[in-house]
Design goal:
By secondary structure, the chain is mainly α. It has helices at about 5-30, 35-55, 65-85, 90-120, 130-160. Helix 3 (about 65-85) runs antiparallel to helix 4. The longest helix is centred in the C-terminal third of the chain and has 28 residues, at about 130-160. It is globular and about 50 Å long.
């Protein structure tokens, strides 16, 4: 297993903080909002995680994880602008939720990849990015995301 660089360590720690904040927000508030302190922490640590991901080239060059990092930055920035300026009026809360929740999805895919290609140490679960187990894991993550997104949208609708 390749050791982590100082940037890799920073990226991992900040990413764990971001994921922990998002999980807390989804459980307690059912959504991520910049108006909450934990929401601000999530958004800042998510941006730091995405920015640091763009400097890590473990697999030889830019890959899908770098694309997800760019999508993460876009989702956070667009969600933040929409939250502040409400351009979509009554649909705005749904759009903000889609942006911020999408940024969480973009965290989870490379997180699953890193965990499954590194652990258990010496005999990782998958050996490549095309491994069927990893692809199934992506499918499960996407399915859970869509189910929870629908539940979140219904909650926002009922909330008024």
């Amino acid at each position: 297993m390749p050791s982590l660089s100082p940037m890799g360590i920073f990226h991992t720690i900040v990413g764990i903080v971001a994921i922990a904040c998002a999980v807390r927000l989804f459980i307690v508030d059912k959504q991520i909002l910049a108006s909450r302190l934990s929401g601000k922490v999530y958004l800042v640590t998510t941006l730091l995680t995405a920015a640091s991901a763009l400097t890590i080239f473990r697999h030889g060059g830019p890959n899908a994880a770098h694309g997800l990092a760019v999508l993460t930055v876009l989702a956070v920035v667009v969600g933040y602008v929409a939250e502040r300026f409400t351009p979509l009026r009554s649909l705005n809360k749904y759009f903000v939720a889609l942006c911020y929740s999408g940024s969480f999805l973009f965290h989870m895919l490379p997180t699953a990849t890193e965990i499954m290609t590194r652990f258990p140490i010496g005999n990782p679960l998958v050996s490549s990015l095309t491994d069927p187990l990893l692809q199934k894991t992506f499918g499960i993550i996407a399915l859970i995301f869509f189910v929870l997104l629908v539940a979140q949208m219904r909650w926002l609708y009922k909330r008024g």
